[in-house]
Amino acid sequence: MTASQSVIPDRSTRYLHEAVVYRDARQYVDLNAPFLAAGVAAGEPVVAVVSPPNIALLTAALGAAAESVRFVDMTDVGRNPARLIPLWRQVVDDAGGRPVRGIGEPVWAGRRPAELAEALLHEGLLDLAFADGPPLLLRCPYDAATLDPAVLDAGCARHPTAGMSPSERAAAEFAGPLSPADPAAETVVFTRPSAIRGLRALITERVAAFGVRGDRAADLVLAAHEVAVNSLRHGGGRGTLRIWTDGPSLVCEIADDGHIAQPLVGRVRPLPSQLSGRGVWLANQLCDLVQIRSSAAGTVVRLHLDGQPDPV
Fold first, then answer.
1. Beta-bridge partners for 244
2. What's the pLDDT at 265?
3. In what order do the strands lie in the sheet with 186-190?
4. Residue 161: per-residue pLDDT
5. HEC profile of 165-222
6. Where are the alpha helices (DSSP H) in 42-148?
7. Distance CA 50, CA 274 (A)
8. pLDDT at 7
9. In this predicted structure, what is the pLDDT of residue 13?
């Protein structure tokens, strides 16, 4: 879809995930304000998960109709893109079967490479997450004026295309490689449950040296603990911990020989009665960014902690 097109989808469509491309603020408003206004006029729940500047643009363009739109700051909730599918699922569930209309822009210029990789993975997983076809119309704007052309192409390609099913696209995305770990990363191999305590102590020391203490430091230690335990239980009884700094972030990576067959791992809220499978979900709630890739060759989980010390 080009920037000159603005389509108000037929409400007979149960689920639609589309990309729209724009080049300036006027095109952004022309494409997206009528889309939201149509939902308000139809009495649908309408949600816009966009950047603060675009919240301002849409609010001004919609006028009184803006009061019926739920605006969410994407730069906050979408900082870890793994939290976005649960957000949209909750919106759909809260609607109780009513049609829902939304805008989400997880890909924007200025994201760090690791965040951008996860935003693109999120786009590739959406159709699998909503393969049950709920009445959700979801539009994703892409800024052609600021995004690298390769990123723009990659984002648009992750919206419905012929030739691959949602599960095939998701599996291909989830099996793809992450960027290489830092060759200077501190590396520890662990093979037994008794080693987990030592891993916790090591991570605690490295987080403190990184300048983060208090609750945020404890969050990373707990997340790493959960992932390491999963490696011993489901990853062949052996795991490898690597720790390094990447710009403003401390990265804690745990790799093993296991294979996660569910690309939506950590993106589906566990049921209260569920006794297992909570580790990755918990990590996504505790860390600034979580990256997971898994194939027959093994699984890699990266936990990112940004250098924002707790206030004293």
1. 251
2. 94
3. 186-190, 239-246, 249-256, 298-306, 289-295
4. 60
5. CHHHHHHHHHCCCCCCCCCCCEEEEECCHHHHHHHHHHHHHHHHHHCCCHHHHHHHHH
6. 52-62, 74-77, 84-95, 113-129
7. 33
8. 44
9. 57
pLDDT of residue 308: 66
The answer to whether the CB of 231 falls within 8 A of the CB of 196 is no
Assign domain 186-306 to a CATH class.
alpha beta
Strands 46-50 and 69-73: parallel
pLDDT for 69 equals 98
Residue 108 identity: W
Radius of gyration of the chain (CA): 20
Show me where the domains of the chain are located.
15-174, 186-306
Residues 254, 227 contacting (CB under 8 angstroms) = yes
Closest C-alpha to 34, from 8, 68, 72:
8
Listing DSSP states for 145-158 in one string gives TTS-HHHHHHHHHT
Residues written for the chain: 312
At 3 the pLDDT is 41
Question: Which amino acid makes up residue 125?
Answer: L
Backbone phi, psi, residue 309, to 5°: -60, 150
What is the reported pTM? 0.88
Q: Looking at the structure, give the CATH architecture of the domain made up of residues 15-174.
A: 3-Layer(aba) Sandwich (3.40)
Amino acid at site 217: A
Integer Cα distance of 201 and 199 in angstroms: 5
d(CA 256, CA 14): 39
Over the chain (312 residues), the average pLDDT of each successive run of 10 is: 44 79 96 96 97 98 98 96 97 94 96 96 94 92 96 90 73 92 97 95 96 95 96 93 96 96 92 78 96 96 84 45
Per-residue tokens: 129: 């997450």
Q: How confident is the model at residue 163, as a pLDDT?
A: 57
Of 194, 128, 195, residue with least CA distance to 158? 128
DSSP 81: G
State the amino acid at position 19 in one-letter form: A
